Amino acid sequence: MGINVASPNAEASSVYNTNINRVNGNNLDASATNPVFGLRVNELGEIRLPNLGTVHVAGMTTDEIAKDLTGKLQDVYLKNPIINVRILNFKISVLGDVLRPDSYTIQNEHININEALSLAGDLNITAKRKNVLLVREENGQRQFFQIDLTSKNVFDSPYYYLHNNDVIYVDADKTKYDNTARSYKTNTLIISSSIAVLAILASAFFVYHK
How far is CA 140 from the centre of its chain? Predict the structure, then answer.
């Protein structure tokens, strides 16, 4: 997590600031040679800050964290602080019937479901567009939401914009499963026939050389 604090007392503010910019290049370069430094969120969902100690941030949006920190710092340690918070390892996963199913690190926390599917190379022709599954964890509980990409209302959906660690699963239609099953049966028949032919040839070979 990256935090930037500004106030009339720049020296006092600086102890809270982390480097939320790339060391080399720009934010579009996510390679290991272009790192970002920030605050580590521990397994309990907490960060540690000078003077404030441990601050709980799990389950909060960046705006909520900024508001909470503003209240904690204002008039006690800093006067009129302006706080910006960024998630540096915002990640989403796109799985199922897409071209490149994988997990993707996003550099800006603002991505919608269509953009996420584009990252994964878009849906395959056999994908179900009316029944895309969004898996989201909120308050320690996993929740499931169905999204119809063909509906014009998708842009107004509360699930159109993604949260950190969201998982999108795209199911394939019946055609793909039928083709897969047909291909499996065909391959099984070919293998079985090949084994039978080999058995006949082996039997003939032994009879001939008896």
Answer: 17
Looking at the structure, tell me whether residues 115 and 43 fall in a common domain: no
Same-domain pairing of 34 and 68: yes
Residues 182-204: tens digit of each pLDDT: 555 555 555 666 666 566 655 65
Boundary-marking domain end, from 28, 56, 86: 86
Same domain, 82 and 6: yes
**3-state percent breakdown (helix, strand, coil) of the chain, nearest 5:** 30, 25, 45
Domain of residue 188 covers 174-210
Domains held by the chain: number: 3
Tokens representing residue 189 in the block = 């028949």
Residues 29 and 23: their CA atoms lie apart, in Å, by 10
CB burial readout 31-48, b (16+ within 10 A) else e: eeeeebebbebeeeeebe
User: Within 13 Å of residue 164, how many CA atoms lie on the same side as its CB?
Assistant: 14
List pLDDT tens digits, range 106-142.
876 778 999 999 999 999 999 999 989 999 987 778 9
Angle among Cα 57, 159, 26 to the nearest 5 degrees reads 60
